[in-house]
Design goal:
alpha/beta, MobB_dom, 177 residues, MGD_biosynthesis_adapter, Molybdopterin-guanine dinucleotide biosynthesis protein B, 5 helices, 10-stranded mixed beta sheet
């Protein structure tokens, strides 16, 4: 039996709100009767520090994710460490969990549909360097001309961006299992 699932990346620089947004999306998915899983990229170099990363993955699990992991420098933490994991292998592993949605936190350079979180003017360079952006959420007002055709929300417009993202997920940014 084949199962379809959606993938959405949440990207931005450190302390831009990626984990908080991921938590909110997990809760929205659960309210709609969808099972959610998360994959977090440890983007600080080296292997993930279990004590530090446990906080974010615990937040994901507490929000209702059925599985959560952290990857960094080829090591996947899913309660245990496996060597030489990458995003593609992790997504393959997640097939076992029969999830409806996989939220990927980080992995800026991957090409899955993504939300870009902008916390300062310096972060706007992400909009020039990333692909497959479906929406931008900013901590400050951004002039319309700087956004191309991206759907744009201010951080405080939570209800609208959560509805937009859940609708996008249900449209079919799907990968067939």
């Amino acid at each position: 039996m084949k199962k379809n699932y959606s993938i959405l990346q949440i990207v931005g620089y450190q302390n831009s709100g990626k984990t908080t947004l991921t938590e909110k999306l997990i809760k929205q998915a659960n309210q709609k009767g969808l099972s959610a899983a998360t994959i977090k990229h440890h983007g600080h170099g080296g292997t993930p520090d279990l004590e530090i990363e446990r906080k974010d993955s615990s937040r994901h699990l507490d929000a209702g994710a059925i599985v959560s992991s952290v990857e960094g420098d080829g090591v996947l933490q899913l309660r245990t460490n496996f060597i030489n994991w990458d995003l593609k292998k992790t997504i393959e592993l997640y097939r076992f969990f029969s999830t409806d949605i996989i939220f990927i936190e980080g992995y800026k350079r991957e090409s899955y549909p993504k939300v870009v979180l902008i916390r300062s003017e310096d972060d706007l360079n992400l909009l020039r360097s990333l692909t497959n952006i479906i929406c931008v959420i900013s901590h400050f007002e951004i002039e319309e001309g700087r956004l191309k055709d991206y759907q744009y929300f201010h951080l405080y417009d939570e209800e609208n961006y959560l509805n937009f993202l859940m609708n996008e997920m249900s449209k079919g940014n799907f990968i067939e299992d």
